[in-house]
Design a protein that fits this description.
homotetramer; alpha+beta; about 50% helix
Chain lengths: ~475, ~475, ~475, ~475
C-alpha cells in the first residue's frame, strides 16, 4: 500500500458518480474529452518506476513509514522540499507541461501547519482529524485537488460585503453531523480527476468573515457538488502522434449545499488561521511552481534552440542571446526554489515550510516572464507556427511531395521531422491549449500582484530603512 | 465603377476555380470553413457607406479620376498616407482585428515606385504595364494579396545557395508568352479571398540571384497554383453571437510551374530593384501596421478597462498604470505612422513613400509590445478566461441559475454581459485564433529583427558619431 | 530689436543685483562657478547666425512682426511647433545637452492660452497685460525661466492642507500696488541666468486653494528673491578642452515676501484656470522634450557607435541591435512630437497647443527610457569610463608614453583621440553632471507617473470600452 | 596570527614604496585622496569584532588551522560558500557599498583549483608553491587584489593578434630567477590598498597565446610596477558627516618589465589552464556578487522606502509595487548565490566551486537590473537629489531658517534629517562616485554579455533539445 497502480487509479476514478457538466450534459469520468487530462494523472502513477526519477518520486511517509508517492508527502526536511522541486521539474519535462498533481498535497501540507497551530491556540481538534485523513490519503495513493479561488464577485469587497454572500464559499449551517457549505470554487484545476476535493480559504479573512473561514476535504462526487468543467488539450493528431498528448481540465466546482462531516472539517470559523491557511497554501504551491516553471522554460528553450537549428539561425548572435536569457529565467526561478528549500522553517507540526520570500520572488519572476518566453519562441520560430497547413495536406498523395519539398529547411533533417517540430510549436503557441497554459502560468498559485503584495508584506523593509538612516547619519 | 458591392465581390470570388486545399480536400471559396475570413473582406466593402469612415474609406484614383476604395489607392500625398492610416485603424476597430486588405495595395504602391525606377534606369517597360493593371484593379474594385515570404529553406543561405533552388520562387523559363515560375510563398495571408496574387521578392538579392528577382500579379486560380490553406477564426458560438465573428486564412501558395504572361510581369531579373521592391513593400506594409496595431491596442485597452470595471478593480492604481502603458504603446505606434506620413518622400512615379525610419520604429515598437499587451489583459482579467465553462452550461435549465449566480461580479451588470465579456476575452487570449493573431502581430510585415536591421541600415549613424567626435574634440 | 547679441545678454545679466547663494556666500552672476551655465545661454544667442539653424532659430513675432528668437515665440501654427521641436533638437545636439532656454517660453505660451480663457470667462484683464509683457520680452530678447515646482511639503496633502501654508507659493497680501507672495520654487532651472522669473502653479488646485492659484513674472533680482543655487558642469579639463563645456544651474528660488505689481500678475485666485495653467505649461514643456530628448539619444547613440568602433566591436550583433534600440527610442519620441505638432489645437488666443496625448506619450517614453539608454552606453563602453586615470598622467613625461601605449585599441585612431572619447564618456556617465542630467531627464517637465496620469485622464477610454462592448455583443 | 589589527594593516601598507601616480605626481599610500578607500579596507579589519558578523567574518584555515579572516579563506564546503556570501552582504550593508576585499581571495580560490589540476596533468609544481603563498597570506592577514582585465586593445583580436603584443600582459623572458612580465592590467580595483597583486589571465587563450598564459602574485611595490590610480569617493561633507564615507580606487597597473620569482609563479604557458583560470576567477568573483549586490539593493530599497515615507507617498500603490520589485531583484540574486553554494562541486584541490550556472544567472540578473534599480530610487525621490543646494546654505545664518523651512516634508521628521536623507541620495545618484559604482556594478566580474556567454556555453542545451524532440516525436 502507499503506492498503487495506474489501473487501480483509473478504476477508482471511474467509479465516481457522474457530476461533471460539459457541453450541456452530465458525464462520467470516462468521457473521451476528459481522457487527455486523465492520462496526465495516470502518467504520474506510471512514472513511479522511471529510473530517472528514482529516489525522487517516492518518499517515506512520516505517519505510516510506508513508501508513498512524493506528491502525497508532508515535507519533513529541506531535503524533502528540494526533492519535491526536482521531482516536479522532471515530471513536467517528461509530460510536456504541468502535471496537476501538486495542488492537493500543497493544500495538505499547509493544513498540517494551520490545523496544528489552531489546535495549539484554541484547543480545537483539527490536527488529529487531518492526520487520520492524510493516512487514508497516503495509504490509498489518492489524488486531490485544491479548491481555493472563490468566484469572488466584486474584487473590491470582502466576503461579508458582497451583495450575494455565496460568492465566497461559506458555512450556512452547523449541525451534529457536520457543516453545510454553499458556494463555488473557480479555476479548480484537476478536480475532475481527483478523488478528493480539498477546500481552503482564498484570502485574508477579517473578524466579520467567520462563516467564510473554513477548510475541509470531501470525496469529489459528494452529493451537492456539481463540477462545471472546461478541458484543454493539444490538438488531436491524425498522422503524427506524439507523447505530448496530455491535457488538463478546470472545474467551476459548485457546492450546492453540501454536507461535510466533522471528521473532514479542518478549520471552521477561525478567521486568523483561515487567512494563514490561504497564505500558506499559496506558499507551498508557489514553491511547486519553482519546480514546474523551470520545466516549462526547459521546453521553450529546447524548442527555441531546435527551431533555430532547423531554420539555420542557431549561430545568429541575437538567437544565442535569447537562449541565454531563457536559461537565466528558468534557473533564477529554480534557484529561488532551492534557496526557499534550504532556508525552510519548521512548523509546530514538524512540516517544513519553504522560505516565503524566496518562494514568492521565484514564483513572481516565473509569472512575469512567461509571456516573454513564449514571445521568444515565436520570434525565433518565425511565422510558420501560425500558418502551417493542416496535417492532411502533408499526407494526401496529390500534395505530399510538394509539401515535403517546401517544408525543408536544414539539410539532413527529414521533412517529417521539420513538420513535426513546427506542428509541435504551433500547438504550443497557436492553440487554445497554449493560451490556457499561458493564463495558468500567469495566475496559477496567485497572480503577480499577489506575489508582490506577499513579498513586501513579509519582507523586513524597516531593517533596510534603518540601514539607510544609519548610513545617512539619521538618528532615530 | 471603382466601387463595387459586397455581393459582386462574393459572386466574383465564388467563380474562381477551386484550388484551395484544406483537410485533404480541394474546396471552393464557398467552403464553410472559409466563411469567417470571407466575411471580413465583405466587411471592407460594406463599410464604404459607414458614416464614421466618410472621407476616409474612399479616394480618387489618380489614374482614372474615379472614386475608389482607399485600400485600392496609390498614395499621392502625405494626406493620403494619413488617411490610409486612420482608415485602417477605424476599420480594424470595427472588425475586431486585422482587415487583411492592405497587403495587395501595399505591394502595388511599392511596385509603382520600383517599376518606374527600373524603367528609368534600364529602359524596361514595367511601369506602363503596371499602370494598366492598376487601372483594371481599381475599376473592378479587386482584392489582392501580397505573396512575399518564400519558404526560404536554410535561413543562413541566400536563394542561389539553397540545396533546392525552388525554396525561393524563381523563373525557370522565359518564352514569348511570358515567364514560367516555380516555388512556394508561405504566410500568404488573405490569398483565398483575393482576386489577384501579387508576387514580390522577399529579401535582398545579390548578383547571383537573377532568377529569383521577379515581381508579377496573376489571378488567384491560375493554372498551376495550389493554395494550401489554414484558417483561423473565433470559436463558434451557440448562444452568444457577436460581431467579433471574422476570421482569416493563410495560404502556403504553391506555384507548380505557373505561366505569367509578360503584361503581368513587373520585374524580372533586376536584382538591385528586386531588393528595393522587397524593402519597399515592407515599408508600405509596416506603415499599414501603424494603423492596424493601434486598433488592436484599442481593443486590448478597452477589454482591460472593461474587465477591470466588471471585476471591481478599475480604481486600483496598478490597473490604472497599466491602462496608461497600453495607451502609450498604441499612440506611440500611431504617432510614428503620422510622422512617417508627414515626412514622406515622393518617388519618380509620384507615389508618396512613408518615411522609412519612422515607419520602422513604429512597426518595431508594435511588434515587441504585443505579447506584453496581451499579458496585461490576461493579468487584469484574472484566470477566468482560461477556465470559463462552455457556453451550454450557462443555458441548460439545471445549471443556468447557478451559473448566472456565480459569474456575477459588479452589481448592476447583468450575468449575461459579464459572461459575454469573459467569453470574448477568452476567445482573444485562450484560443487558436488568438495565438495566430499574436504570431501574426509579431512577424507580419517583418519580424522585429528585420525592423532593427532596416532601422540601423537606413539611419545616419555617422552623423551622430561625428557629433560626438565634435563634442569630444576629436578632429577628422 | 527682437534679436540681440550675446554680449548684450551678458552685460544685461551682469547688471542684476547679486542674490545668488552658493557655498555660503552671496555672489554675482559673474561668479566663475556660474560660467559654464552662462555660456550655454550665450550659445543660444550665438547660434542665431548658424547656417544649420537657418529658418529654424528665428521666427516672426505675431505681436510685433519683428524677427525674434524661436525660443521667444508664441506658436501660431503646427509648423511653428514642428520648427520649435527641430530647432530644439539641433541646438541640444550642438550644445551636447539641454539648452535650458525653453522653460520660459513654454510658460509664456501656456499663459497666453490660460489668461485669455480666464478673461473670457471672468472678465478679468490678464491677457492684455500678458501681451504687453511678451512684447517687452521679445523686443529685448530676454531669457526667462519657469518657476513651477513648489517645494510641496507632504506630497499626500494639497496646498491648503500643509502644516506650513508656505510650502506652496501663495499670495499673502493683495494691495493697490500688487500682490505680495511667499514661498519657494524648487528645481528652478536656469533661474540664475534669466532676466525674468515666470511663475506658474504646480498642480491641480481645488476650491480651497485660492491663494495658491497665482501666475506672474518678475525680474530675477526683485527685492525679496533669494536664489539658492546648485551648479552642475562637466569636469574641468587641464589639457583636453572640448566644446562640451556647458553647464547648468538649478535654483531653490525663495520668495521672501515679494511684491509683484499688478501689471505683472497673469492669474490670481482662479483655481480652475490655475490647474489648467499647470497642466498646460507641462504640455508645452513636454513637447519641448520631444525635441531635446532625441538630441540626448543622438549623443548617446553616437558615443555608443563610436566607442564600439574604437573597441573593435562595431560588428558584434548585440552591439548593432543596441544601436537599433537607441534609434527606436529617440525617433519614437521625436515622432510623438511631430504627431503632437501636426495634430495641434488652436486656443482662443490663437496659440497652437500640441496634442496632449501624443505629447505625453512621447515625454513618457523618453523618461522611462533614459536610464536604460545610459546603461547601453556604459555596457558597450566597458569599464574604462569608470577607471580612466586622471588627465595629468597622460601628459607627464614619465608616464605619457606608457599611457598612450596602453590606451590604444583600434589601429589608426590616435591615442589622444581614444583618450578623448573615453574621457568624454566618463564625463557623461561617471560624473555629478551626468547624474544630475539623468535625474533631470527623468523628472523634468513632470515625472513618468505624472505623464501616466495625464495620459489616462485625457484619453477617451470609454470609446474603447464601448468598442469592446460592441464586439462582445454587450448592449449598454 | 591569522587575524591582525587595522593598525598593523595601516602601518604595513604605509611602508610600501610609493608607486601610485595621481594628478601627475607619485604619491605614497598616505595621500589624503587615498584615505576614503583605505578606510574601507580598514573597516574590514575592524568588523572582525562586530557581533552581527560573529561566526561569519572569520574561518578556520584548512592549511594552518588558525582562525583567519573569512575574506582570506579557501572554501572547503558549501557552508563556507554560504557564509562568504552572507558575510559579504552584511559587510557591504554596513559599509554602504562594495568592500573591495573579495577580489584577492576569489583569485586565490580559483588558483588552488587550477594549479592543482595543472600539476596533475603536466607534472608541474605550481600547487605546492601556491599553498606556501596562501599560508603566508593568511598568517599575515594580507590584502590582495586581482589583476585580471588586460587593456585588451582591439577587442576583435586575440592576444597574439594585437598589433602591440603588450596589450595583454605577457612573459617576455624566462630566466633562472623567474619570469619577466610586461603589460598593463586595467580596472585593477583595490590595488593601491593591497599588499599583493595577484595576476590571472583575462580570457580564453588559444595555442598561439602561450606567452600570455600566466598567473602569479607579487608585492604591490615590486620594482617596475606603476599604479596609475583614479579614486572615487562620496563628496566630502562640511557639516553633515556620515558613516557613508568610504571610497574606492582603481588602478591602471603597469608592469614595466617586472621580475616575478619562480616561487610566485602559479601558471606559465599552459593555455588550456589559463583559460580555465580566467573562467574560474570569474566564477568565484561572480559568486561574491551574489552577496554584495543584494546589499546594494538593500540600500537602494531602504533609501527608496525612506524617501517615500518622507515625501508622504509611502502608501502610493506604484511606490509599493516598486519596493516589491526591488526586493525581488535583490533576493533573486541572493537565491542564485545560495543555490550555487548548495550545489557546489569539489575540485581535486578540495576547494568548493560554486555551481557555475546559478552563479552566472545571479550575477547576470544583478548586472542587468542595477541601472533600473537606481532609476527606481531616482523616480521615487523626485528631482531634489539633483537640485539640492549646497550644504553651506543650510547652515549660514541668513538662510538657515528659510532652508529648514522649505526642506520640510513629512511632519515629525526634523529638517536636518530630511536634509540628510536627500543629501545622502544625491551622493548616491548624482555624483561621480555614484556613476562609478553603476559602471562597476554593471561590468565588475564580467559584463552581462560575458555572463550570457558563460551561461549558454555551460548549460546542457542539448538535453532540452532532445526533450523537445521526444515530445514532438522526433527520433534521434
Amino acid at each position: 500500500m502507499g503506492i498503487t497502480s495506474a489501473e487501480e487509479y483509473i478504476e477508482r476514478i471511474g467509479r465516481l458518480k457522474p457530476n461533471i457538466y460539459m457541453g450541456g450534459e452530465v458525464v462520467g469520468r470516462d468521457h473521451p474529452a476528459l481522457k487527455p487530462g486523465l492520462d496526465l494523472i495516470v502518467d504520474t502513477y506510471e512514472r513511479v518506476g522511471d529510473k530517472d526519477l528514482k529516489g525522487l518520486i517516492t518518499a517515506t511517509s512520516h505517519l505510516t513509514g510506508e513508501e508513498i508517492h512524493r506528491l502525497n508527502h508532508i515535507h519533513q526536511s529541506s531535503d524533502d522540499l528540494l526533492k519535491k522541486q526536482e521531482c516536479t521539474r522532471l515530471l513536467c519535462q517528461k509530460a510536456g507541461g504541468c502535471v496537476q498533481r501538486c495542488m492537493g498535497i500543497d493544500a495538505l501540507n499547509a493544513l498540517t501547519v494551520v490545523s496544528k497551530d489552531t489546535d495549539d491556540n484554541y484547543g480545537t481538534e483539527y490536527y488529529p482529524r487531518l492526520l487520520e485523513f492524510i493516512k487514508y490519503f497516503q495509504k490509498n495513493d489518492l489524488v486531490g485537488c485544491c479548491a481555493q479561488s472563490d468566484v469572488k464577485g466584486d474584487r473590491s469587497k470582502r466576503p461579508f460585503e458582497q451583495s450575494d454572500p455565496d460568492l465566497y464559499l461559506r458555512v450556512i449551517e452547523r449541525n451534529n453531523k457536520g457543516i453545510i457549505v454553499r458556494g463555488c470554487k473557480a479555476h479548480n484545476s484537476n478536480a475532475p480527476y481527483s478523488d478528493e476535493i480539498i477546500v481552503v480559504p482564498t484570502r485574508l479573512m477579517t473578524e466579520e468573515d467567520v462563516d467564510w473561514s473554513v477548510a475541509f476535504s470531501i470525496p469529489a462526487d459528494t452529493k451537492g457538488i456539481k463540477q462545471v468543467v472546461r478541458v484543454a488539450a493539444p490538438r488531436e493528431r491524425k498522422y503524427l502522434e506524439t507523447p505530448q498528448r496530455f491535457g488538463l481540465a478546470d472545474s467551476y466546482t459548485i457546492f450546492d449545499d453540501v454536507l461535510v462531516p466533522w471528521e473532514r472539517v479542518f478549520l471552521c470559523g477561525e478567521t486568523f488561521f483561515a487567512s494563514f491557511a490561504a497564505m500558506l497554501f499559496a506558499t507551498f504551491h508557489r514553491h511547486s511552481y519553482t519546480g514546474c516553471k523551470p520545466a516549462i522554460t526547459d521546453i521553450i528553450l529546447g524548442a527555441t534552440a531546435l527551431v533555430a537549428e532547423y531554420n539555420g539561425v542557431a549561430e545568429a548572435s541575437h538567437v544565442k542571446d535569447k537562449l541565454s536569457e531563457l536559461i537565466a529565467t528558468g534557473e533564477l526561478v529554480y534557484s529561488a526554489g532551492i534557496a526557499a528549500s534550504v532556508k525552510s522553517t519548521v512548523a509546530a507540526s514538524g512540516t517544513h515550510i519553504p522560505n516565503i520570500i524566496y518562494t514568492n520572488v521565484g514564483r513572481y519572476h516565473a509569472g512575469v516572464s512567461l509571456y516573454h518566453e513564449i514571445e521568444t519562441l515565436a520570434d525565433v520560430a518565425g511565422g510558420l507556427p501560425a500558418t502551417l497547413p493542416m496535417e492532411d495536406e502533408f499526407f494526401v498523395p496529390e500534395l505530399k511531395e510538394l509539401m515535403d519539398k517546401y517544408i525543408m529547411r536544414k539539410d539532413g533533417v527529414s521533412a517529417e521531422d521539420q513538420h513535426r517540430l513546427f506542428r509541435g510549436i504551433s500547438d504550443m503557441i497557436c492553440s487554445s491549449y497554449g493560451g490556457v497554459a499561458l493564463v495558468g502560468g500567469l495566475h496559477g498559485g496567485g497572480s503577480p500582484i499577489m506575489e508582490k503584495i506577499a513579498i513586501r508584506n513579509q519582507y523586513d523593509i524597516d531593517y533596510r530603512k534603518n540601514l539607510v538612516k544609519y548610513l545617512c547619519g539619521i538618528k532615530k
